[in-house]
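your task:
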Amino acid sequence: MAHAQKIKKQGVIGLVIHCERREGCELSNQDIDKSRTHLNYNLACDIQPMKPEQFLKKRISEVKHLKRDDIIYMVDWIVTLPKDVPQEDHEKFFELTFQFLTQKYNQKNVVSAWVHNDEATPHIHFSFIPVIEIDGVERLKCKDILTKKELKRFHPDLGAFLEQALGYMPSIQNNATINGNRTIKELKQQENLSFKKSLENIHKHNEATQNIIDESNHIDYNPSGLLEKTRTLKKCNQIIDGLKHSLNQYQKEVLGLTHLVTIQKEELDMYRSMPLAKQLKQKEEVIHNLHSSIHHLEQKISYEENQFQRLRENYDELEKKNDCLKENINLYKQFISLLGLDKIFRHFKQIFQREHNTINAYDLKDLYQKAQNAIIRVLSSLKEKIHYFEEKHPHESLEITIQSKNDRQYRDMEL
């Protein structure tokens, strides 16, 4: 009997812990016999030597898939060893099942294939990544692989494969799988209905038996009616024999149902993933990490705001210094213009830059003579204007206004 379990991202670690018998595996199944765990083995260790979680991350990064938490990352087929397989064929049964599943789902998608001999019933966990190629592109798409048609054909196809290899048909199909692969809930519902029906039939036969016994207690054993009483007794015995046969049949049915319930309980335990407490603990850790990240970001934002405020203050201070420098430069320009040294300064600048911040002594001397002559002319002109003003306006104050004609001409002074 086989059953497919779909595993989402958050359930992968729980299944890996159970399959590889890592620490905490007893939480997923209380029936594990640790004294027999050494008998377990992985049939896929040669084709996939990586750790399952590492291989899963690598393989999924190679295929196209949706970025959602509810995507099926892995499928786990659990195939239980049928009771009618001889002891000498146990390993061969699992190897053939592994070959069948590997061919079916592609070797490069196989995660692991653990055979468990340390539980009540030996079985294999064949885990694979549900990848399908569509138009030449590999996609993670479980619903296109585990279709209803696929699940209905799985047991007959596996049975035919095993029959051809073993020479006989193991009891792969049973009441639980004859109509396709059904869930544990559906199997439990069917078991409950069958069990209730068998108990109802047993109760009916018990009532009929009790009625016959009550009737036999009223039989008159006087010799006068002995023949009639004998016939009645014989008829009762026949009915009782029939009831005993029916009771035996129903007892066999009850034993069969009890055995099926036991098997389903074992498989239900195998299908458990991590306990709820462990999942809640992981979620609490995630929430705690998120709060820590938010607190860290708030601190970083506060630090950046303080840095920005400092930069803003430095900028304002530099802006004030820049305004002061501009004002000083303007005063220097006005002073040079007032002395009539504009052209001489430009000539000096051209020579100084052309000679890479050096100047010849003879050039400097020539500039000095020109500057001296220019200053003398300006002072002479100023002196004449002041003398003229004092003669015309002896009792008024003298103010000088500097007016600019353009950037390439001398600046004139007006009184």
Notes: The longest strand covers residues 72-80.
